[in-house]
Amino acid sequence: MKTTYILQVPVSITSYDEIIDTITKTIERKQKYSVVSINLNKIIKANESAEVMKIIKSFDCFIPDGISVVRASKEINDRITGIDLFNKICDEHEKIGAKIFLYGAKQEIVETAKNNLIRKYNNIQIVGIENGYVKDNDYLINKINSSGANIVFIAMGSPKQERWIYENKNKLNANIFIGVGGTFDIISGKLKR
Ligand code: UDP
User: Fold this and answer.
1) How far is the CA of 185 from the centre of ligand 1 (A)?
2) Pick from 108, 166, 106, 172: nearest CA to 138
């Protein structure tokens, strides 16, 4: 996967297909892969904070989520959004062998998101959920590990979700970690895109 830089922030030159392929192989090989979406807001935050820059650079894939990111680079032709990547992974859940854990948003939202996904996709494995306001991180790590999840979606806004991935991915047996912002609010039907 090729990478370009906008104001020192990495952005991947890639496609949905390439990411889905990488996710599938990463799970097969029991490795780890983390995805952060890059928009103008994150580029600004990273340039204001060395900590945020360090956290972002610790990821493996940097999807060009914002339209300004696409416009800022000649090498990037297509926008890749967090919600569309989420939807593609659900579309391909069988091929990927996805066992999905949803972490983030309010309890009612994440529950409705789970129920809507189960209704929409045949045999999708949503192996666990937790709201984004849980205080006991050790409890959460245990819950995710006992669920057998291989993909964790984290929806808590930025940079909170990226910091959580940075601090916790090595404590988790899951393979794929993706920050998806307000995606559960949309899936639950609470927010329009
Ligand atoms: N959220 C959360 N825990 C927090 C703060 C926020 O789970 O401590 C959730 C909030 O309920 C909402 C989402 O994070 O579902 C907010 O995402 P937002 O749209 O602000 O993120 P962005 O995509 O703008 O980074």
Assistant:
1) 9
2) 172
Q: pTM surpassing 0.90? A: yes
Q: Is 133 exposed, middle or buried (0-12, 13-18, 19+ CB in 10 A)?
A: exposed
Query: Would the CB of 40 count as within 6 Å of ligand 1?
Result: no
Distance from the alpha carbon of residue 158 to the mean position of ligand 1, in angstroms: 7
Model confidence pLDDT, tens digit, residues 153-167: 999 999 999 999 999
